[in-house]
Amino acid sequence: MDSSTQITALIVLTVVAGIFSQVLAKWLRLPSIVLLLLSGILLGPSGLGLLHPTLLGDGLEVLVPLCVALILFEGGLNLDLSRTNQDLTGSLWKLITLGAVITLVGAALASHWLGEFPWQIAWLYASLVIVTGPTVVGPLLKQVGVQRKLAFILEGEGVLIDPIGAIVAVVVLNVVLQQDMGWAAIAINVIERVGIGIAIGLGGGWLLSQFLRRAKFLSEELRNLMVLAVLWGLFLLSQRLMSESGLLTAVLLGTSLRLAEVPGERLLRRFKGQLSTLAISVLFVLLAADLSVASMLELGWSGVATVLCLIFLVRPLGVWLCTWGSDLTWQQKTFLSWIAPRGIVAASVASLFSISLTNAGMSGGDAIKALVFLTILMTVFLQGLTAKVVAEQLQVRAQETTGVLIVGCNPLSILLAEHLRDRGEVVTMIDSNPESCKQARQKHFPVFCSSALDTEILQEAGMTRLGTFLAMTSNTEVNAILAQRAIEEFHPPRVLAALASEDDRLGIGRAFQAQVAVKDWNEYISDSTFRTGEVILEGPRYHLQVEHIRALMHSGKLLPLLIERTEGLRVVPAGEEWQAGDRLIYVLHTPKPHALPAALTSEWRISQTQIEPVLIPPAA
Q1: Is-contact 97 138, C-beta < 8 A?
Q2: Do 273 and 368 fall within a single domain?
Q3: Which of 16, 69, 209, 383 could serve as 250's disulfide partner, Cβ 3.0–4.6 Å?
C-alpha cells in the first residue's frame, strides 16, 4: 500500500472512529471525550495498530493548531459575558488569572516533589495543565445540566483559559530553552503575545462584522465559509507575528462577532458548532492514538500521585480562593472544584513541546507528554463519569421544568421578565428585532435573536428544560402560531400566549386579559405612565379587593402579571380564579390621578401613602 493510500485510510478511519464514538456516547449518555480517548488508544499502536498518526509527519503539527483555533473561535462565539451579574463575572476573571497562578505553582510543586521531575520539567508540566478546555467542559455540562451560573463560570473558564495557558506554556518553554532569559524579557514576551492577539482578534472581528452587515449579496453558505477563511487567515497572521498569539486571536474574534450581533449569527454558530464537533472528534482520536501507553506506565505511582494532588488539592484551593466573598454556596464551589478536566489544548501543546525539547537535545519531552496525557485521562474519566452523580448529591443540577421562555422582547415582556427573575425564576427571551434584543440584553437577560422561530432555536434557547412557553409579541396571530408550534414539537408543561379575546385555540392558554392590547401596554411603559405593585388577597375584604381588581381590569387600567401561591409562581392566565391568600403582582396604568375612574378618585387621595392606594378599598 503506497503512502497516499495509507494516509487516506488513516483520515477516513479517524473520522469514522470519532463520529461513531460521538454517536455511541450520545446513546449511552456518557461524556464523548471518554469514548474518543478510548477509541484512539484502542486503534493506535498501543492497541490494535490500525491508526498510525506518524504517517502524517509534519501534517499533524499543521492540523492540530488549525482545529484548535476553530474550536476556540466557536467557544468565543457562544460566550456571552453580558448574561450574568458582576459577581459571577468577577469570579470568572479571578479563576483565569489568580486561579491560573495557583495551578501553575501547585502543579509544579506536585510534579517536582511527588513526580520527582527536575524543576525545569516540572514548570513545563505545570504550564501545560493550567488549561481546562471547552472541548471537554461544554459537552459534559450539557449532559449533566447544571445550574446556569455554574455553567457560565465553567464554560467561560474553559474558553478563556486556553489561550492564556498556551501563552504561559510557550513563555515557560522559551525560558527553559534559553536559560539566561531575564524577567524583563519574559514580561515583554507575554505582553507582545497578548497585545497581538487582542489587536488582531478585536480589530479583525470589528472589520468582519461591518462587512457582514453590508454584504447583503452573500448567501448563508458563502457567509459562513468566508468567516472560516477570515478566522484561519487572522490566526496565521497572529502566529507569524508571534507564536501562540493566534489562539487568543481566535477567541476574541468569536467574542467580538457575538457582541456585534451580526446578521445570521445563529446559522453561523450552528455551522461552526458542527465543524467544531468534527475537529474534536478527529483531534482526540489522533492524539490518543499517538500516545504511548508504555510511557504512561513508566511514570508509576508517582505520576498518579501528582495528578491526584492536582485534582484534590490544587484545584479546590484555587476555586475557593477565587470565589471568596461571592454569593456562591459551598455546594456550588465544591462542584466547581471537582470539574476541571483537561482537553485538547493541553494534549496538542504537550505533543509540540515533546518535539521541541527533543530537537533542542533536552531529555524529558516524552515524560512530559506522558504525564499530561495521564492527567487528561484521569481527569476526564474520574470527573467526567462522576459529574452527574456529584451534581445530584450537591443539588446543583438545573430544574428540568422551571423557568420561562418568552418570545417577544418588548417593554411589557421585559418588565414581566424582571419580576420573574427577581423572584428566582430562570428567564430566556427570543426576538427577531436586533434593537429589541439589545434592549433585553441591557437588562442582562439571555436573548436569542433570530429571524425565524424554528425547532433549532427553541432547543438552543432551552425549551426542553423550561416549564413555561409564553408568546407575547404585539401580533396576536403570530402568538397563536408560535404557541401551537411549541405544543406540537416540545409539549412544555404550560403554554400561554397573548391572544385576542375571541381566540380559543385548542391547547393554548390565553395570557393576561384581552381588554387592552400588548402594544398599548408597551406604550404606557415606554411613556412611564405606569406603576407596578403587589397585593395579597386575604381577610374579610377579599371579595371587595377582587371586585375592585376586576373593575380596573375591565377599564383597561390594570394588568395582572404574576400570581404567587404556596405551590409556586406563575404567569397569570386569562380568566384565573383567584383564591384567598394569593399574592398578585400587577402593572397599573396611572397617567394622572384625576384620570382614574370617578368611583376610585377619593380612595386614591385618602390612601395615597398606603402600599396599595387603588386596590384596597376604603373602609365602610
Answers
A1: no
A2: yes
A3: 69
Cα–chain-centroid distance for residue 138?
8
Looking at the domain assignment, is residue 128 inside a domain?
yes
Burial of 608 per CB tally in 10 Å (0-12, 13-18, 19+): exposed
Rounded mean pLDDT, 439-460: 80
Starting at the edge strand found earlier in the chain, the sheet holding 447-449 runs 447-449, 427-431, 404-407, 468-471, 494-497, 509-510
Give the domain CATH number at 214.
1.20.1530.20
- Same structural domain, 302 and 337: yes
CB 220 within 8 A of CB 263: no
Phi/psi zone of residue 408: left (φ > 0), alpha (ψ -120 to 50 degrees), beta?
A: left
Q: What pLDDT was estimated at residue 280? A: 85
The span from the CA of 316 to the CA of 329, in Å, is 14
**Residue 89 clears pLDDT 70, i.e. is over it:** yes
H/E segment holding residue 568 = strand 568-571
The residue out of 481, 516, 551 marking a domain boundary is: 516
Q: CA separation (Å) from 490 to 285, 431, 481, 572?
A: 35, 19, 14, 22
Burial of 294 (0-12, 13-18, 19+ CB in 10 A): exposed
Q: Residue type for 215, please?
A: A
Determine, yes or no, domain membership for 210.
Answer: yes
Q: In angstroms, rounded to a whole number, what is the distance separating the alpha carbons of residues 33 and 48?
A: 20
CB 265 within 8 A of CB 460: no
Look up the CATH number of the domain holding residue 425: 3.40.50.720
The proportion of the chain whose per-residue pLDDT surpasses 70, expressed as a percent, equals: 88
106 and 221 inside one domain: yes
SS (HEC) of 317-339 = HHHHHHCCCCCCCHHHHHHHHHC
Q: Is the pLDDT of residue 102 over 90?
A: yes
Give the chain's mean pLDDT.
82
The CATH number for 558's domain is 3.30.70
Retrieve residue 589's grid coordinates.
396604568
Angstrom distance (rounded) from CA 43 to CA 351: 19
Number of domains in the chain: 3
Q: Which of 430, 425, 428, 435 is nearest to 408 (CA)?
A: 430
What distance in Å separates the CA atoms of residue 571 and residue 559, rounded to the nearest whole number?
Answer: 11
Q: How far is residue 258's CA from residue 438's CA, in Å, rounded to a whole number?
A: 12
Q: Please write the tens of the pLDDT for every residue from 451-479.
A: 766 666 777 777 767 778 899 888 888 88
Point out the domain boundary residue: 374, 394, 414. 394
How far from 498 is each of 106, 263, 449, CA to CA, in Å? Answer: 57, 28, 20
Give the domain range for residue 222: 53-394
Q: Which three cell numbers stand for residue 95?
A: 479563576
pLDDT tens digits, one per residue of 573-612: 877 777 778 888 888 887 755 454 444 433 332 233 233 4
β-pairing, 558-565 vs 583-589, is antiparallel
Chain CA centroid to CA 196, Å: 26
C-alpha cell at 360: 533542542
Q: How far apart are CA 127 and CA 198, in angstroms?
A: 21
Based on the fold, state whether residues 240 and 346 are members of the same structural domain: yes
Q: Do residues 505 and 538 share a domain?
A: no
Say yes or no: 297 and 407 in one domain. Answer: no
- Asked if residue 11 is part of any domain, the answer here is no
